[in-house]
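SUBJECT: A protein chain and its fold
Encoding: whole-number codes for local backbone shapes
RECORD BEGINS BELOW THIS LINE
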Amino acid sequence: MECARCGTCCVAPDISTLGKRVGERCRHLNERFECSMYEDRPAVCRGYRPDAICREISAPTLDERVATYLKIFEIER
């Protein structure tokens, strides 16, 4: 599956390496939902791969996608 560039994986989970909390937009996520430090991103980010969850969280807005992601994984902000 190819990445849909929805931005959810850069917002929903925590990324402690970058000091990013759950539900907080990563400071490296640009307006086109691309990583501005893609080549130098941390290992945890390199490990993200598009999968069935990406289809399951599909929604018109980033806020809706993040809310669905958090609900699926029972994560609280």
